[in-house]
Amino acid sequence: MKKIITTSKAPAPIGPYSQAILNGNTLYTSGQIAINPETGDLVMDDIKTEAEQVMQNLKGILDEVDMTFEHVIKTTIFLSDMNNFAQVNEVYGGYFNEDTAPARETVAVAALPKFVNVEISVIAVK
């Protein structure tokens, strides 16, 4: 059964979508960008800070359903510039155990919402 997940630990949607959907034991998050959920402001000081905010937003959603990054089985990373890959990967890697890291794809795109540099979504199973 589909359950809409909403938390104040991640930014409110900026369109007609949910922060996440829980279907049975599987969580599907919407792509997260670097919006500070407390202020609504973009966090774009540098690419690492931006990626850190994205991961914290994902953590907030996972926390809401009593999951951690260990439950994540698949991620998708969208970058507006593939030159940012190494720095984003460094931040991202800090959230996963390399031996149990999820499947992933990273793609470069022409543009992202609010012209951010990185957007990440996850699928997690409990």
Written description of the protein model:
It comes from Aquimarina amphilecti. Pfam families: Ribonuc_L-PSP (PF01042). The chain is an alpha+beta fold and 126 residues long. The protein has a single domain (2-125), classed as RutC-like (60s Ribosomal Protein L30, Chain: A), CATH 3.30.1330.40. Helices cover 21% and strands 27% of the residues. The protein has two helices and six strands. Strands 1-2-3-6-4-5 form a six-stranded mixed beta sheet, covered by helices on one side. A hairpin with a 2-residue loop joins strand 2 and strand 3 (26-29). Helix 1 (47-64) runs parallel beside helix 2 (85-93). The longest helix has 18 residues, at 47-64. It is globular and about 40 Å long. The two termini are 15 Å apart. The mean pLDDT is 97.
Largest sheet: 6 strands, mixed
Overall 3D form: globular
Highest CATH level, the class:
Alpha Beta
Percent helix among the residues?
10-25%
The ordered string of helix (H) and strand (E) elements is EEEHEHEE
CATH topology: 60s Ribosomal Protein L30, Chain: A
Broad structural category = alpha+beta
Low-confidence stretches: none
Question: What is the domain tally?
Answer: 1
Number of helices: 2
What is the radius of gyration? 14 Å
